[in-house]
Model the fold of this input.
Amino acid sequence: MARWAAGTPERLQKAALELFATRGFEQTTAAEIAEAVGLTERTFFRHFSEKREVLFHGQQALVEACRAGVAQAQPDASPMEVVAAALRAVGAFFTEERRPFSRARQAVIDQNPQLQERERHKLANLAAEIAAGLRDRGVGEVTAALAAECGMAVFAVAFGQWLRDDARSFAEITADVLAELHRLTAAPLPQG
Amino acid sequence: MARWAAGTPERLQKAALELFATRGFEQTTAAEIAEAVGLTERTFFRHFSEKREVLFHGQQALVEACRAGVAQAQPDASPMEVVAAALRAVGAFFTEERRPFSRARQAVIDQNPQLQERERHKLANLAAEIAAGLRDRGVGEVTAALAAECGMAVFAVAFGQWLRDDARSFAEITADVLAELHRLTAAPLPQG
DNA sequence: TAGGTGATGACAGCGGCTGACATCATCGCT
DNA sequence: AGCGATGATGTCAGCCGCTGTCATCACCTA
Done:
């Protein structure tokens, strides 16, 4: 057990989410979030490098799930198979219990461009992670980047669907969106 | 002709690019940029909503080229054909004369996460623009979003190549990357 | 020449974020 | 029990990004 009250980042995140939801992101100061859990502004910034980061705490697990998914793909898998493996692994992160929190969090993010920007940034990092994994497997630079970016595209679309559709799991939705991607690009381009 | 010295945003951008390149983005204050062209910090922020925006001045033309590309696509074009049309239109923006500037600008952006974040944000806006155009054509929500995001993926990869490869035009590279996308997704997934 | 318009300057102020130093609770060791 | 090490927190000062407000000044129009 910790010396100090454990879960400080989590408590800050919870308080921040509530304050952002009621007052809005910009109308909430870091000092107010800290005060809500009995801490000071300075301490807030010791736990989070930026005010926005308080909403992204815990996402490291997602990155690692993604990395693991890439690592576990068959050695002879094609780039898109590796990407699919990464997406399946990511499905383990977005469990059913997580959905309410994700929804509340997304509602806040949808209200603020700065937060959307941050979320995109995290997504891009995820893509870079996958691309690096692909390059390690000997996939060419351009192919790796493209496949990873497409994986990001699928993820972004699937995640949005997952938040809306209570009836389907993240894995199901992702599989559908991946299939849709293959359908979309099935016909060759006339001017290709 | 204007009442005041014309091209103030352009002059600020030029000064900013030079200062960012030598000192770095964070080590350069908005006041310094303004002072470099004989203006005050306050005036800088009248031209640019944020310090970062000084590097994105002029990109509205890109958005409009993109929009025009979508509009000019054949009425019966498939989603990916529309995306390809948008990418071709965007090629008109990245002319040969623009390459040196783009390269210098990118070198600065590559050095700073905040700027990378901003660039991704702009790219996402572009994708949203294309997606909206697709929806206007009756393409379903999910398909539109996915196709647009894939277009963004192709653009991101192609742009990187364009900066590196002096010998090829943006249009050529984009066509290649689009072809690569179709190659990547040609084989159906085993678990699809 | 007078008045309108719009870019700029000057100033005050908030909030995000950081560095530096002090404090204090807990842990491990004796 | 006592003691030093460790690490989270508090306190304070300060820079910078960014904004509101009002004054100023250049230029245009009549």
Remarks:
- The interface with chain A takes residues 78-81, 84, 88, 113, 116-118, 120-121, 124, 142-143, 145-147, 149-150, 152-154, 156-157, 160-161, 175, 177-182, 184-192 of chain B (CB under 8 Å).
- Residues 2-4, 29-31, 41-42, 45, 49-51 of chain B lie near DNA strand D (CB under 10 Å from a C1').
- The mean pLDDT of chain B is 94.
